[in-house]
Amino acid sequence: MDPLNEILRPARLTSIVDIGANPIDGDPPYRAMLAAGLCEVTGFEPQESAFQKLEGKRGPRERYLRHALADDLVVLDDQHLRHRLLTIMTCRWRSW
Fold it and tell me: Which range of residues forms the domain containing residue 55?
């Protein structure tokens, strides 16, 4: 058992929310906690291929949702960017 966890003896698992859970950078920083059974993870990953990769190796304390989260972020519409017209839209907790 983890020494800190042994001292604190939490009543529940730590809940981690991973926004942009795409596994492109290797193991996430919470990987050791997850492996030790100290946390549960809810990950958001809108990119289909990354989402499928996460789902393929998901453990019992992990769940992944194919959604993007945003709050007052500026998003450039890619189609208009290609035509050199920048369309800016503000997203407010919109899932795609």
Answer: 3-65
* Same structural domain, 75 and 61: no
Tokens of 28: 């996430």
Average pLDDT of adjacent 10-residue blocks, the chain of 96 residues: 80 92 89 92 93 95 88 49 37 41
Model confidence, pTM: 0.67
94 and 60 housed in the same domain? no
DSSP string, the chain: --HHHHHH--SSPEEEEEES--GGGSS-TTHHHHHTT-EEEEEE---HHHHHHHHHT--TTEEEE-----EEEEEE-HHHHHTT---EEEEES---
Residues 31 and 18 in one domain: yes
